[in-house]
Specification:
- The chain is mainly α.
- It has two domains: 51 residues; 122 residues, Up-down Bundle (AhpD-like), CATH 1.20.1290.
- Strand 1 and strand 2 form a beta hairpin.
- The longest helix has 36 residues.
- The N and C termini lie far apart (53 Å).
Length: 205
């Protein structure tokens, strides 16, 4: 059960209902996840959903790589809903099931594509250390340009905010689905675990 009330279309104010209509008429198709909390402030929810729409559907990164950055972030924060939605989206975008399964188990992903490794390392390092080592950053710029690396950083930051919103308000899973991630508990709270066999990739000599 959510820690906060979650407005339904029948209980929404006029302002909330307008934002709700904008959301369900867009590419998401329904009100789900953090927007169920954000809609308590309709202006915030409207700007949130527009930013999220750009970062999920409108970056210059290939969808597979965009979704990879999202599920690395979801796994970092043990965000159940984010993982549930975006693991499926990553699979549909072409990310291998073996990589998705490894991330789910907090294990080393079996990448065979350098672009995937760079996205993984970029997202992992940014969340572990608050920055990214020079080689990974430079390679990301070579692959996707300045706009792409700015977008990648924004994707990780945005979905961190999404994860925190989902976790702190205990937003329930959509469609009555069971939580997909094994989230170890520490003192009654989810442990914030990062991949425990994080890959350290080095360029071939």
């Amino acid at each position: 059960m959510s820690r906060i009330p979650l407005p339904t279309p029948e209980t929404m104010s006029v302002e909330q209902r307008q934002v709700y209509e904008n959301i369900i008429s867009g590419p998401r198709g329904r009100l789900v996840g953090p927007l169920r909390a954000a809609i308590h402030n309709p202006e915030l929810a409207e700007r949130w959903q527009k930013l999220g729409e750009i970062l999920r559907f409108g970056t210059s990164l290939p969808p597979k790589l965009n979704e990879l950055a999202i599920i690395v972030t979801a796994r970092r924060w043990n965000s159940q809903i984010e993982w549930y939605i975006h693991a499926d989206a990553a699979r549909k975008a072409g990310l291998s099931q073996a990589v998705i399964d490894a991330l789910k188990e907090a294990d080393e992903p079996p990448f065979d594509d350098e672009a995937e490794v760079i996205v993984y390392e970029f997202a992992r390092q940014l969340q572990q250390h608050g920055t990214v080592e020079s080689f990974v950053y430079g390679r990301a710029v070579e692959l996707w340009g300045a706009a792409g690396v700015v977008e990648l950083t924004a994707v990780v930051g945005y979905y961190t905010m999404v994860s925190m919103t989902l976790n702190v308000h205990e937003i329930p899973m959509p469609d009555d689905q069971p939580p997909p991630l094994d989230t170890p508990m520490q003192d009654g709270a989810p442990a914030l675990t990062v991949m425990n066999k994080a890959r350290k990739w080095e360029p071939a000599l």
